[in-house]
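Researcher: I'm preparing a figure for a lab meeting and need a structural model of a single chain. I don't have an experimental structure, so a prediction will have to do for now. The sequence is pasted below. Please return the structure as tokens so I can convert it later.
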Amino acid sequence: MADLVDRVRSFGANIVLDDNALRVVNGQKLPSAARSYIAKHGKAIADYLGSDENIEFEERAAIIDFDGRAPREWAEQFARYLSATKPSGVSEMDWSWFLTTCGRMIDEAPGVAV
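Model: Understood. Here is the structure written out token by token.
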């Protein structure tokens, strides 16, 4: 479902839970097939958006986006890394270094901070 939400956002629309009801923001920007798919699979999409995993991801991305003043695309990708399981064959030390370096790169990127 994460890929679906990303695809919807790429069109300039969004899918959100509003008082436990699924709402499509800027739905007119989506192709009709996408709107039909969302309508047909609304329950599964709502379950995903309301899941603890998605809520944690959105919270992390929002903090990176707003507090860190990073572009949303960067914030979402970094939030995915932060939520990911360490790849096999990578030591805890190396994984920690990778995450820290990613965060530092976002923090120090020229022209990103407002």
